[in-house]
Write a structure and sequence with these properties.
It contains nine helices and nine strands. The chain is an alpha+beta fold. It has a five-stranded antiparallel β-sheet with strand order 1-8-3-6-9. Strands 2-7-4-5 form a four-stranded antiparallel β-sheet, with no helix packed on it. A hairpin with a 2-residue loop joins strand 4 and strand 5. Helix 2 packs antiparallel against helix 3 and helix 3 packs across helix 6.
Amino acid sequence: MEYPVNPPDYSIDITNVLLAHECIYAVGEENRVYENGRKVCGLVFALSGKAEYITPHGRFVLDTESIMFLPESVSYIIRCEGDEPFRHFTVNFDMAQCTGGGILPKMLEEGSPVIISTGRRTQYYVMFERISAVWKRKQSGYRVLAKSILYELMYTLVCDIELGMQEEKSFRKVLPAKLFLDESYMEKIDIGELSDMCGLSTTHFRRLFKKLYGTSPLDYQLNMRILKAKDLLFLGEYPVNEVARVVGFEDANYFSRVFKSRVGTPPQSFRQAVN
């Protein structure tokens, strides 16, 4: 995973780690210990189950796909949702100051919980497990070691948040072209027209689209045509030539070659197999 290029710099001062442990809430359990405010910052990493955090800022659901940052000023009630216990790591800490730019100072200023979705679950598990183990053993210098792990955790989280914001901006930029390809996949269009829809240069548009969807815009359109062709062939109401025309292929032979290369079987054989 690539980190953002030249994000705003920032600095944090973690003065003390107060708690790092694994905790379990039973199904249906409600916890009101922070109903009147946390007074300390916190990180929560879900291991199984899910919980709803009811705050003045709204309701936030934490599950195994995400991590939650809790600023010291927030108050909330926790309810264990679903049909299994909410097992999670929690780290509570004091942070004296946060200076500079970027997202973290804004998060602290707003005082609202932040849900961070991440695909790097294993990496986060290792860090949360390490800091919890250090806290549990309480060997000489454990607070120093716990603080160093927490700095690494906070750095990684901020990078993931900044990256997610960049990807969201990229998504919004290419969305007009993506919607057009989804709805008008059968129409002829070139890269220049798609990039113009988004107000981007052709090179920038190509790069953003491939980064988000893992393929080029025209290949994405071709995939959409093949998916629609499979639906029509499944219905069994149209001959192959008509299916090719409906999804945007002028040459039925070319359609058959493309279909076979992507599906693994010719369209006629596909129709016979599913009907």
